[in-house]
Amino acid sequence: xxxxxxxxxxxxxxxxxxxxxxxxAFVDDPVWSAIGPHRRRHRQxxxxxxxxxxxxxxxxxxxxxxxxRSAAGEVVGASVAFAPGRWxxxxxxxxxxxxxxxxxxxxxxxxxxxxxxxxxxxxxAHPHVYLWFLGVxxxxxxxxxxxxxxxxxxxxxDAAAVPTFLETGSRENVGFYEGDGYEVIGEIxxxxxxxxxxxxxxxxx
Length: 205
Fold this sequence. Notes:
This protein is of the alpha+beta class. The chain has a single domain (2-201), classed as Gcn5-related N-acetyltransferase (GNAT) (Aminopeptidase). It has helices spanning 15-25, 30-35, 40-60, 98-104, 106-121, 145-160, 171-178, and strands spanning 6-9, 64-69, 75-82, 129-136, 164-168, 183-189, 195-201. Strands 1-2-3-4-5-7-6 form a seven-stranded mixed sheet. Helix 1 (15-25) crosses helix 3 and helix 4 (98-104) crosses helix 5. The model has no long low-confidence stretch (mean pLDDT 93).
């Protein structure tokens, strides 16, 4: 399917589709599941609200947001990344998460804040492109959509001669990213319970 996928900057009006894709992609992620809400249906709804806020807020802070579109023009994948020097965004800018707080409730919000601070505390210090989120519609995972998004991101990182850094809470995703030149460089014991793996791909792959 990857031959039918086109990757490009998110367009006006695609935010809802992109947040739906990311919300579905992360609904069973170990960290997002631990943060909650713990009922899957509730988490599906809160994830969509959360990613709508994340996309809008991160865009205001210079994020590089890309979507993968099918031949029919449907958004089937999305990524949120930051160029060197753009991360971290101010912690207080998470005001965009207020909608998620209302839907998810105070306990998931508390767990999310603790996990976010744990990740920020162990972020790499050297110049890098930071891949904050990458997600593909579950029905299309394993069909080249994620790799198409990565290829476009890596081209930018290689042109800037900097590594690409990410965190993942999924063992399965560790193998996926290793297939694209990433190596595990550390682990984060998340306050919510799961482990996150810090991974980096050198410039040039």
